Amino acid sequence: MLSEPRTISLLTEVVHLPVVHAPERLREVYAEVCRTCGYENFLRVQGGARIERREQEGEGFSQLALLNDRIQLTEDHTGISVDQFGKKAVAVLDAAMRTLGIPILLGQQATVRATSAPNSFKSAAEFLARGVFKVCPEDLEPLGRPTSFFGFRLAFPATNQHPQGYNVRVECYVRDGRSLYIENAGTFKAPVQAGNLEQVEQNLQMTSDFLVDSVVKFLSAYDKKEA
Description:
Blueprint: E1 6-15, H1 23-37, E2 41-45, E3 48-54, E4 61-66, E5 70-76, H2 82-100, E6 104-105, E7 107-116, H3 124-132, E8 151-156, E9 165-172, E10 180-188, E11 192-193, H4 198-220
Antiparallel strand pairs: 1-5, 1-7, 2-3, 3-4, 4-5, 6-11, 7-10, 8-9, 9-10
């Protein structure tokens, strides 16, 4: 079976009714999230502001974008867990909505990105070609040149039983040919009131759980020695 998935990137975007942000209000949000959530730098952008923190070592960064119709939070290669990110998102959204006068969120997209390595194949490309798609080298001869399998997508539309939709990407991880890059983007259309921001945290956790408990389990069934 695949190795324990390692979360490398977390994102969430919430949409709200368009609003014109006063510069002083944006500064108030900046002051609060710097104090409580560890952000450092402030930059005005079209329709709002971008607040961020760069890791002193490596390429990791935390970013908060306050735009005229949405709020975006990103944690990329910072080592933060899904649980920690969910709590941070609630704290940031509480400060932003309270200060900027946003009473309700119209919808949310949550994205979880992770890596995981097969144990029965030398590389992720070999796992996809031979393990998942069962393609033999001779099957590729009509293509007339060396071929490497890179990835595929799965779509899970919303239903009455499962109102959230998921879009999954499974690819070779460009930074490490041994590992798979697995991404799940969840779409949640139910509005969230300012007093019920825990739902944002729960949506993030559901997106992560589907990646770990369903997608990785599905892929692991193909990670076995050939007879």
